[in-house]
Design brief:
mainly alpha, globular
Amino acid sequence: MKKGSEIFYQTMLLTGANFLLRLAGMSFQVYLSGRIGAEGIGLLQLVLSVSVLSFTVGSAGIRTCTTYLSAGELGRGTAGGLSSVLAGCFQYSIVCGGAAAAALWCAAPWLCEVWIGDQAAAAALRLFALFLPVRCLHGVMTGYFTAVKRVGSTVVVAFLEQGCSMAVTFLLLARWAGSDSGQAALAVAAGSCAADVLGFWALLAVQRRIAGRSPRRRPPYGRILRAALPLAVADTLRSGLNTIEDLIIPRQLALFAGTVNAMADYGMIRGMVFPVLMFPAAVLVSLAELLIPEFSRCAAQGSRTRVQYLARQGLRASMLFGLCMGGLLFTLSDVLGDLLYQEPQVGGLLRLYAPFVPMLYMDALVDAMCKGLGQQNANARYNTLTSFLDVLFLWALLPKLGLGGYYVSFAATHLINFALSLQRLVRVSGIRLTIGKPALAAACTAVAGCTASMAGGPLRMTGCYLLLLAGLWYLFRIVSRADCRWLRKLLG
């Protein structure tokens, strides 16, 4: 099989898995929003944001470290070395995860009183703290399975985890929590913790079966610390800024004179609009995961021509896909808001943010290509810078402009991040960019979206939009016959 076809088929396989997982997650999010409302979703998003920060602190870079060191031992063919690396990563994870869990347990009441504004969320945070070490050990196992190229096992376990999380949460919501937002957050935390325990033990059982017993040397603590600690600092800084951003949004939004319910507004944007906005990106997430090692191999072999080819094709594909999905979300925004959440305001917000979809989707692929070309440190600097700017903008603009301030901050920081990442990719890959056809493609998409929005029902709008878009792109040779032949070749 040719390399391009191999990447294509692997992308389709991972895309199918990602789509199913995202569909299940978004469907459950819709169920939760109907159960606890926008305010409850906002509270849940804050609890999850704090739990993500505690996991980032507790894992302390160990997942990537496990992948890197395990891959090295696998390349050297030392089974004893592989088991020693895994043992050392386990010990590191238990120490760091235990410390982070203790900190979260003690800080939970203060966080809920000062920042979240609801003491009912403290129980959910403390439940996350109890199971945080297991979650960190789960991260070690996923890093190990990535290194030994057993992606199929992690996909199966991911489905088991999703099913377990949804089943436990649904049972608790139906039998105990009701519509209380604090109890609902505790139910979600219980489902997530149960899924972590199940996933860890399942992966550990598979690892013991495939690895068997092997002689173990002393764990390489020095190599683990040298690999994990720099990652821990960078990840903690970025995750900390993201969590601060989440915590200050409802707090500062409440200072705006026109705000009726700051927590509900926050939950509507973060918990309702953004999941719909990013749902189609599952295709590009799968492609990004596969492009990172492919770019790394090409760069190591000095194959600059293939690097440039993959970069051009990746940018073009992500741009066209983003334009198509962004226009479709813009056209169907009111329909989606009513269908999923029975909330007209969600449709209006979805239409407002839909024009950013092409940039967001392209940025995901640009970041992956930069990582594949060894530009991880530059990506980390850009992400940290824009997260810091986000915090500053939100703190200053939300009390004065309300949700308009959030929109301005979102637009400015994402544009800056995308421009910096794209400039870095152009510089290291040597590709040339033209703005003529992208601008024409965007104009055609806008025309198709505005025309299709007057077609009537959702099916007619969708069909009209796709037909108009395909016709305009073909008419102006944005998509040519050569592209069609290339796609047919990939399909076999």
